[in-house]
Design brief:
3-stranded antiparallel beta sheet, alpha/beta, binds nicotinamide-adenine-dinucleotide
């Protein structure tokens, strides 16, 4: 069975009604990211940070997986499929994908500021004053801009022997996540599904499908099955 890594970003959830990040001139849902998504913001104004992520959580819980999330699940019938996502929503999980690695954390979880233990958030709100078992403030389980990305090591290991890399809905501008392209073997087939990417990708071995995720993934699935039938 060939191994597929699907690397997703905010664009795959756009058709579920969750705005991407770069849609808004560097603002995230009208917030300046420095004020809500950095360790400095947490020190300066934790209540604002909590408010921002409470709003995001509410929005995610209202959203539903779209056709793109659902079509990725079908890949599991033919390929050893792993999703590596930069998204903090749970739409891949709700669609039914079975192997998912979150690089930037999960909006439905909180994390202890004492020892990094994580907890499921009951309901939509995490409040100032909500404490972990060790009586320390809980923060959203999100990897903020400027923080290390612990799951990058696992991502690199998963990519090392990939046969196919599919990149969907990411500007590839957030590092180290965007390094994923360097982790796959040289002979790995690479595809990008994104309506706004141009052909001026530096790596000529990448096939660009310039479509929204919901229309691009079926096109890609067809290309993959044609290649499979030729190689059989
Ligand atoms: P980004 O906003 O930087 O880039 C989004 C990409 O998606 C763009 O290249 C855009 O052309 C493309 N796109 C837009 N609509 C699309 C569609 N229908 N189908 C396919 N592609 C589409 O997003 P990023 O690269 O993921 O980086 C943003 C950071 O912000 C991430 O770290 C992420 O954690 C966070 N974020 C997460 C969510 C979420 O969890 N849903 C939403 C916004 C931001």
């Amino acid at each position: 069975m060939k191994k597929i890594i699907v690397f997703t970003g905010a664009g795959i959830s756009a058709e579920s009604g969750i705005k991407t990040f770069r849609d808004n001139d560097g603002l995230w849902e009208n917030y300046n990211i420095e004020e809500v998504a950095t360790p400095e913001a947490w020190i300066k104004n934790p209540k604002l940070v909590l408010k921002f992520y409470n709003e995001r959580r509410k929005q995610v819980l209202k959203a539903k997986p779209n056709k793109a999330h659902l079509d990725l699940v079908k890949l599991e019938n033919k390929y050893d499929t792993y999703i590596i996502t930069q998204n903090i929503d749970d739409l891949h999980e709700r669609a039914g994908s079975s192997k998912i690695l979150h690089l930037h954390g999960e909006i439905l979880k909180s994390r202890s500021t004492f020892n990094n233990s994580t907890y499921n958030i009951e309901g939509t709100k995490l409040n100032f004053g909500d404490l972990c078992e060790n009586k320390s403030q809980l923060r959203p389980d999100i990897v903020w801009f400027g923080e290390a990305v612990p799951n990058m090591i696992k991502a690199e290991e998963l990519c090392n022997d990939a046969d196919i890399l599919i990149i969907i809905g990411t500007s590839l501008s957030v590092y180290p996540a965007a390094n994923i392209l360097d982790y796959v073997p040289a002979n790995c087939e690479k595809y990008i599904v994104d309506p706004n990417k141009t052909e001026s990708l530096s790596d000529k071995n990448i096939t660009l499908i310039q479509k929204k995720a919901s229309t691009g993934i079926p096109i890609l699935a067809k290309i993959l099955s044609q290649k499979d039938s030729i190689s059989q």
